[in-house]
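Re-running the complex after MR caught last week's input typo. The corrected sequence lines follow. Everything else is unchanged.
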Amino acid sequence: MSAVEARPQAPARRRRRLPAGELAVVAVLAGLGVFALVEAHTIAVPASSNAVGPRAFPYAVGVLLVGSAVGLLVAVLKGDRGEVEGGEDVDTSGGADWVAVAKLTGAFAALVVLVEPLGWPIAASLMFGGTAWALGARPWWRALAIAVVLNTAVHVVFTQVLGVYLPAGPLEGVVGLG
Amino acid sequence: MGDLTGLAEGFATALQPTYLLYALVGVLLGTAVGVLPGIGPAMTVALLLPLTYTLDPTAAFIMFAGIYYGGMYGGSTTSILLNTPGESASIVTALEGNKMAKAGRGAAALATAAIGSFVAGTIATVALSLVAPAVARVAVQLGPADYVALAVLAFFTVAAMLGASPARGIASLALGLFIAVIGTDSLTGQQRFTLGLPTLADGIDVVIVAVGFFAVGEALHVASRLRRGPIPLVPISGRWMTRGDWKRSWKPWLRGTAIGFPIGTIPAGGADLGTFLSYATERKLSKHKEEFGHGAIEGVAGPEAANNASAAGVLVPLLTLGLPTSATAAIMLAAFQSYGIQPGPNLFAAEGELIWALIASLYIGNVLLLVLNLPLVGVWVKVLQLPRPYLYAGILTFAALGTYAVGASTEDLVLLFVLGGIGWAMRSYGLPIAPAIVGLILGPIAEEQLRRTLAISQGDPTALVTSPFAAVVYVLVVLALVGTQWLKRRQARLDAVVFAEAQRDEARLVTTSRTSSAPPTVEGSSRDDHDGGGVR
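Corrected-run output:
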């Protein structure tokens, strides 16, 4: 294939290195499978239950998890590598940008902690603004301004028009928000 | 008897001004969200689900029908106008429309996609109205063992079809089944895999899993590997449809419909297989073979029609058997369940009014899409230009909103983010998401039917295979597993040929006139990415 000729060494190099990430996936799958098998054994079976109680399906899931882990391990050792999923906005050529992910996680954590004391409009604005900033939106105050407008609108539409509960926090009682 | 009356009553309901408005809102929202890059139909449906929480079931499902068809449509606009590889396996078809746009025939590509989608959607919806009640009448006779067999068929074909390799597909399926087990066993009231945590005692809401895997997972995935620089949009140019375009399009539309609808009704993982088969067919039959890989209109018309026809086909097993055969269908099934409605053979009898209104609104949605989408194409272009930091911040916000709206619980938000992390890891290591979603939603149904079978047979496992229907289905499972691997090899080979062709094309353009607006580096990386995924 001509595309392979264009970068002849890259796939070969990748194939020789020990794929730590792939093996971690195998380990997680196997771990979940073992957990399922052990946990399934502790599920109480009421005397009244039929031929097949609450344990059978969990056992089957455990076996499937361990089986797929073994299958994947064999495939990986033979040189099979999972491709990073492509997409319109995804650059698959480089490695993962952990700093951006950490910032994004922080923004989401702020929402979890603040949504009840400060209400949706404020907490979600901080999350939206923080995420947009983490992904490169500049200047920060414009990201925050967009966040405030969007989340106030979302709050009004969901609570007033659609009747979904969202906490208003200190804004409780403000016209259109409470 | 009664089917036509049912449909007529469905139209009477769906044409009421209020419901028409819901259909319109659904179509517009579905298209707008579907146009957004990185958002496929499954994520569109999952993200917009919270909007329907407080509506009455009829309004909710009419809006849903619009979102479903709109989301399908939106994706094709994205792949034609955005100069980057689209998602999923229908990559060759995305390429054809994109090449047309770059060659100054974007308007014709959009038009053939839109009209083809309308033609295919309408014919396929007629087929759905005829086939679904008939299938339901037959399906009434199926026993629990038969449902177990159908579930197994769906599990393994979806896992085998959508993974880069069967091991990865099955790993994803197993993960979905594991999450489905978490919670309280519905038959005996025993807690399973809950670790004693009260949050997990009721199980994890499927909306949270779907939104976590699709929306948060995608946001984290993109955040970790964001493509910087300007958005490589191809300007729309050229005439809409010339006489020649019509002549070259109508047969592919009809052939695409004929291929897509049946493929949609079988558990083959949704639309990808249909679009690929349609593309391969058109390439073989075309008098303009040399244009394939450089922007052949047949390569847009056929697959787009197949895509929409299979969207209607997927509804046949969903409505008549309660069997979801794609991630989108699985999320729709979850939506039905949230209204206490269990799709299956009795659905047309028990919820006839609702189902016929849903089907009627599919016809209406198709017309609305045709009328609205070409005039609104300027709006969709604006949507495509949304700065990416805001786009993904918005996806995360709506994911959190949908989750919080389910139960007003911050613990659910934590769960959402953890599931998003899993979705990100799966994307990073080539595990497909769809099998997990199908396993998650079909798993509990399969378990219930399995236990019912064995309760009736008093523990005799041969009851699972002694029903003739079930036995036939198990044979099909084996055939499907072999067949999908063969098809995938064919697809990989065709992808490689078309891409090599396209690459030569690109190289010529760059060396001679530099008419292509695409920076060669972007093209290079996308091709590497594709090649590694498809050919081995």
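None of the earlier attempt is carried over here. Confidence is low (pLDDT under 50) at residues 1-15 of chain A. Residues 129 and 141 of chain A are 8 Å apart (CA to CA).
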